[in-house]
């Protein structure tokens, strides 16, 4: 998990926005439209970063594509202290 977190938050472009998304979803599960509005980001940017985080088992979703609600995976929650340490590097 540690290597994945370093990759998605520090090793690739967009880590800062991914950290913002993860922090927002830790506070409250939301769909992509809500995230775009709340974080003042473009919808397609939000969708891209959500896809990256889902592909790397940091987030999971439920529901249909446009209305799907996203939240951290159990794996991310289990390693939350490490998640916090790594995303602090990009904030």
TrEMBL record:
It comes from the Archaea. InterPro entries: ArsR-like_HTH, WH-like_DNA-bd_sf, WH_DNA-bd_sf. This is Transcriptional regulator, arsr family protein. It comes from Halococcus salifodinae DSM 8989.
